[in-house]
Amino acid sequence: MKQSRKFHPFTYKDSNFKICCGDWAVVTGEIMRQRGLLESYIARHPEFKTSLVPLVLLDDAPPLTVQMAEAAVATGVGPLAAVAGGIAQAAALAGIASGDRDIVVDNGGDCFMKLDRPLTMGIHAGRNSPFNHLAFRILPEDTPLSICSSSSNMGHSKSFGKCDLATIVSKDATLADAAATLAANLVCTVDDLRPTAEKITKIPGILGVLLVKDDKIALLGSLPEIVENRDPETSLKITRDINSNQP
Fold it and tell me: Is residue 246 included in any domain, yes or no?
């Protein structure tokens, strides 16, 4: 019988992670390496950090910034909207390359994973959401996979909407992260749920979308199986950063 997964916290600068992996040094080292490359690039191209729309990169941009810029073009948001997912994916891929067969990297709600057994991931849309009893059941054969979330009411990221939760599933975490930002921007009322879900699932590379606003939920595309969340400590396991207003 395989042991249950153990997640360990890792904080680097203003980012908080929860990580389940075999080679801690490789995974956390990649987080720090990617952060250093990103900061060095931003020092030469400050607009990359502040732009709310896609922009052209410098010729010698590192691979992570290229992926983020491509996600920005696909979704119409600024490239920094893809940073958390991008770093989570880079760290997880480094672990996989070092031999990890079961790895999950959660960067503030933006996750990338490769599994050797099923994983149940809780859904949290705010303290009083009627949907917090739900969870995704993710199967190994569906991974590598990214599940990224954004909210207008939780976390410190800039949002122009009023979405309780926008969760996006994709093979590409940079794309999922950027698309989650776009979805959260677009949902201001419950009437926005369906058109937003339809818009997001039309983006090439997006597999599925889950949106929550008040007491309404929208599900569209190919999502992991939704099951009942039986973990009473889900709210205690949420990855929060130091600037978060997350309830």
Answer: no
* pTM, 2 dp: 0.91
Residues 19-63: tens digit of each pLDDT: 999 999 999 999 999 999 999 999 999 999 999 999 999 999 999
Q: Taking a C-beta distance cutoff of 8 angstroms, is the pair 128, 135 a contact?
A: no
Burial of 157-171, coded b for 16+ CB within 10 Å and e otherwise, reads: bebebbbbbbbbbbb
> In this predicted model, what pLDDT tens digit does every residue of 162-174 receive, in sequence order?
999 999 999 999 9
Asked if residue 85 is part of any domain, the answer here is: yes
CATH number, position 174: 3.10.520.10
Quick check: is 28 in a domain?
yes
Helix, strand and coil percent figures for the chain, each rounded to 5: 35, 25, 40
